[in-house]
Design goal:
The complex is a heterodimer of chains A (509) and B (354). Chain A is built from 15 helices and twelve strands. With 509 residues, chain A is an alpha+beta fold. Chain A has three domains: 231 residues, Multidrug efflux transporter AcrB transmembrane fold (Up-down Bundle), CATH 1.20.1640.10; 74 residues, Alpha-Beta Plaits (2-Layer Sandwich), CATH 3.30.70; 167 residues, Gyrase A, domain 2. In chain A, the strands form three sheets. Chain A has a five-stranded antiparallel sheet. In chain A, strand 7 and strand 8 form a beta hairpin. The longest helix of chain A has 58 residues. Chain A is elongated and about 110 Å long. In chain B, strand 3 and strand 4 form a beta hairpin. Chain B has two domains: 223 residues, Multidrug efflux transporter AcrB transmembrane fold (Up-down Bundle), CATH 1.20.1640.10; 74 residues, Alpha-Beta Plaits, CATH 3.30.70.3400. Chain B contains 13 helices and six strands. In chain B, helix 7 runs antiparallel to helix 12. Chain B has 354 residues and is of the alpha+beta class. Classes of the chains: A alpha+beta (509), B alpha+beta (354). At the A-B interface, helix 4, strand 12, helix 9, helix 10 and helix 11 of A face helix 1, helix 5, strand 5, helix 6 and helix 8 of B.
Chain lengths: 509, 354
């Protein structure tokens, strides 16, 4: 440890530090005004909303999880979410390479729609119906259930007979049907089951989709499709081929993610390249389906990793609780430092106030620039940081007292105490920062918010200790109230436990 | 308060001294018992993992005057395998937790709840976690923990001494075991928020240890050259000198954490704030203990094995018995007097210095 600098330079340097701090504060304030950021962006857990984490899954050999596929999926999901028209919705991929999750957050009440909308693979296929029957398992009469047609072997016939569409698991859209196979499928409502031929028209041959309403048929919402060139030809071919066949072979099933949406009877060939999907849709369902088809199928299937829906009431509750805990914690720390450190405690209070102002301004600026949102975990991180920040002051103050116990004057105790405390504070804050950075990179979701605020507040702590606490203490050391060891200054010989010498006793009196 | 800081002064000068290092076997035994108990609790009872880790669904209905029985009856109509946990949270909330559900089942549960309690579907707070996702989260948490330990060890080895890094990590691992053990024993829920709190505590415990070690390093820098104290005695003085600060920082860290716990558990009932602050609260206590009773004694054990330090211990013992005849390795208190006969504190002072 080097010998303490002579104190001559200190006051001037302290003044400079305070000027730098003022410039930083003013700079941040001006930035917030320029950005027009007036309030901290709150996370969904504080204002209500839905967040969905999707985990990519390779559903069959055709789609492997690649980085490009995930990027493409993000784009498609973003288009779907934007079609809802909810402001401040976000779609991001977290993680790296192929080990990425897609995180969708949508504020407000529309959450339940979002969950259905984003996870859907939306693989649309048109297949010829080979057999149709009620959706329950019929183990006894396999022969009559299916009217065997070309391409249906016994294996499929048996599986078809065993298929029970009243089981919920069979009604999950999987998007796993292979286009070239003959498949068995349930209808969406579970009432009917089908054997279907290979896909003849695919979703990617759809050029546009729109929701429509036909008042002549009661409350009937439908989705109308227009095919591209190939699609038009293929659709014309399948429709002209099946019209002459007998039921159920004259039906074409519209299959979405492995479930039959509808299986209309084709009365005449449709060469125009237009089709309609009907099937007791509500208005929202029809619109969502049209959007999903318009933006295309996802290149991957996704599992819902996590779905979290927070009502605005709970959000407000959590925000209030977080703020209350923050003020309570801050208040207790302030009271404690005033009781224990007396006059020096005021420096703690001032430092915490500066740190608080810096953190708040940074929240505003980062919210506007990099889209930082404050979550409940983030608030907790900031509250915990109050303790860490106050720690730095304690380390510093105790060091000053140690030096004073060695018999130094206050002014030289501040300088030599600072030199020693600085090392401790730097190492300890580095540990905090490492923890924050690692947490940020290893974690997903809420944990990241916590790590970010913890890291940010640790940096702010360093700035405040170097540019405010130290300079202020140096300046105060020159003030008689402190340098004389006044009983309320927190540096009286009695309170630091020095042997009371004659001089000290007279000061006490 | 001023009594406490007066004590700080006596501890600093060595007038009052607690023998932390000399009695290390006692602390080691206490910790060993705790760690064994923790392992036992972990093996027998296991951790009570939240749905985030094992997969599952949680529905919170927000309406005053609803009972657990009503909620249970309402959900019973839906076909769900596995256990259903229904809890009352605060005055006006009921939380229903189930195993992992398909989205159809989930919709059925929501429909049943909206019907029974006549609430809007938007006012039900839900959380659905797929089973594979839970594994993913667990994996990430473990990776984070190991990466943290390795990086911190390297960092401390650079910032201090390799043996300090080892002692600090031993203390941290000790904290991990005991905190996990407490969670297993009491059966607190382990959620991602718990893990966050936990990792923060590791950082915090290290922070405490860093401060103590910084003083140890200062006191022991020239200990072999001076030849007055053994490494253990010098380290013990450092612990005594920093103990007031440790007590202070722990207390000041506990104040905000305590208020989060109070608000989180008392007002919100359950969730992120409670889980986080509970982990912090337990961890802080364990971390403070280990930064005083485990890390410095362990460091001293490591250093005392070095030939230089053993030679030093012999020299000090020889000199001590020659001079006073009272040095007792179990109770070296009387000989610790830093800055006796040196330093400005022994000069006449303060007179006319204002």
């Amino acid at each position: 440890m080097s010998t303490p600098n002579k104190t001559v330079k200190s006051p001037a340097r302290s003044g400079r530090s305070l000027v730098i701090l003022t410039v930083i504060l003013l700079g941040l304030i001006v930035t917030t005004f320029i950005q027009g950021a007036s309030s901290v962006r709150l996370g969904l857990d504080l204002r209500g909303g839905t967040s969905v984490t999707l985990q990519p899954r390779a559903s069959n050999d055709a789609n492997k999880i690649t980085s490009e596929a995930i990027d493409q999926a993000v784009t498609i999901i973003r288009q779907r979410v934007n079609s809802l028209g909810v402001a401040e919705s976000e779609v991001t991929a977290q993680g790296s390479g192929t080990n990425r999750q897609i995180v969708i957050s949508v504020p407000g009440d529309s959450g339940r729609r979002v969950v259905d909308l984003v996870g859907q693979t939306a693989e649309l296929r048109f297949r010829q119906v080979l057999a149709e029957t009620a959706g329950v398992a019929s183990p006894t009469d396999t022969s009559t259930a299916a009217t065997p047609a070309g391409g249906v072997n016994d294996d499929i016939g048996n599986r078809f007979a065993a298929l029970d569409c009243s089981i919920a698991a069979n009604l999950e859209g999987t998007g796993a049907d292979s286009p070239t196979d003959t498949i068995i499928a349930c209808s969406r409502d579970g009432g009917t089951k089908y054997i279907l031929g290979p896909a003849e028209v695919l979703g990617q041959q759809v050029s546009s989709a729109e929701a429509g309403y036909d008042p002549s048929q009661g409350l009937a919402w439908y989705v109308s499709l227009a095919f591209d060139g190939d699609g038009t030809k293929a659709f014309g071919a399948i429709t002209s081929r099946v019209t002459t066949l007998e039921s159920p072979l004259n039906q074409v099933a519209i299959v979405l993610d492995g479930l039959v949406v509808s299986a209309p009877r084709i009365n005449e060939a449709i060469p125009s390249g237009n089709a309609q999907i009907t099937g007791s849709f509500s208005q929202l369902e029809a619109q969502d389906l049209a959007n999903v088809l318009k933006y295309g199928a996802l290149p991957l299937a996704f599992d819902r990793g996590e779905v979290q829906q927070v009502s605005p009431t709970l959000g407000a509750d959590q925000l209030n609780a977080g703020l209350l805990a923050g003020f309570l914690g801050l208040g207790l720390v302030v009271i404690y430092s005033l009781l224990y450190y007396r006059g020096l405690g005021l420096v703690t209070v001032g430092s915490l106030a500066i740190a608080g102002a810096l953190v708040y301004l940074l929240f505003l600026v980062l919210g506007a620039t990099i889209g930082f949102t404050l979550t409940l975990a983030g608030i907790a991180g900031a509250i915990v940081a109050i303790g860490v920040t106050a720690d730095s002051f304690i380390v510093f103050f105790e060091r000053i007292r140690d030096e004073a116990r060695e018999g130094r004057s206050l002014r030289s105790a501040v300088d030599s105490g600072w030199l020693k405390a600085r090392h401790t504070i730097l190492v300890a804050d580095a540990v905090s920062l490492i923890a924050a950075v690692l947490l940020y990179f290893f974690a997903v979701g809420g944990v990241r918010g916590f790590a970010f605020t913890l890291g940010l507040t640790t940096l702010v702590d360093l700035v405040v200790v170097f540019l405010f606490t130290k300079p202020i203490v140096t300046i105060l050391a020159g003030v008689k109230f402190f340098s004389s060891g006044h009983r309320l200054s927190g540096l009286s010989p009695k309170s630091i436990g020095m042997k009371i010498t004659k001089t000290a006793t007279t000061l006490e009196a | 308060m001023s009594k406490l800081s007066g004590l700080g002064g006596r501890l600093y000068s060595g007038e009052t001294s607690f023998d932390f290092i000399g009695q290390r076997r006692r602390w080691y035994s206490i910790s060993a018992i705790f760690i064994l108990a923790s392992i036992g609790a972990l093996v027998i009872q296991g951790l009570h993992l939240g749905i985030e880790f094992k997969g599952g669904s949680s529905y919170t209905v927000n309406k005053s005057g609803i009972s657990v029985e009503e909620a249970r009856a309402s959900v019973a109509g839906v076909e769900i395998e596995g256990e259903i946990i229904v809890q009352k949270i605060g005055d006006s909330k009921v939380r229903i937790q189930t195993g992992a559900l398909t989205s159809t089942q989930s919709k059925a549960v929501e429909a049943a709840l909206t019907q029974t309690f006549n609430v809007a579907i938007e006012s039900i707070d839900t959380q659905l976690v797929g089973p594979s996702w839970g594994k993913e989260i667990t994996k990430k948490a473990l990776y984070g923990l190991f990466a943290f330990l390795i990086v911190i060890m390297l960092f401390l080895a650079m910032a201090f001494e390799p043996k300090m890094a080892i002692a600090a990590i031993v203390a941290v691992v000790h904290d991990v075991f005991i905190t996990v053990g407490i969670y297993a024993l009491v059966g607190f829920d382990v959620t991602p928020a718990t893990i966050i709190g936990f990792l923060t505590i590791l950082g915090y415990s290290l922070y405490d240890t860093v401060v103590v070690f910084d003083k140890v390093r200062e006191n022991t820098k020239s200990v072999a050259a001076v030849g007055k104290y053994t490494y253990s005695q010098a380290a013990n003085l450092a612990v005594n000198q920093t103990i007031v600060r440790s007590a202070n920082t722990s207390l000041i860290a506990l104040l905000p954490v305590g208020s989060i716990l109070f608000v989180g558990a008392g007002l919100l009932g359950a969730g992120t704030l409670k889980d986080l602050s509970l982990a912090l609260f337990i961890g802080l206590a364990v971390g403070t203990y280990s930064s005083i009773f485990i890390a410095p004694p362990f460091l001293a054990s490591l250093r005392e094995k070095e030939p230089v330090m053993q030679a030093l211990a012999k020299r000090v013992a020889a000199r001590g018995s020659a001079a006073t005849g009272t040095v007792d390795s179990a109770n070296p208190r009387p000989t610790i007097q830093p800055s006796v006969n040196r330093g400005p504190r022994n000069q006449p002072k303060r007179k006319g210095r204002k």
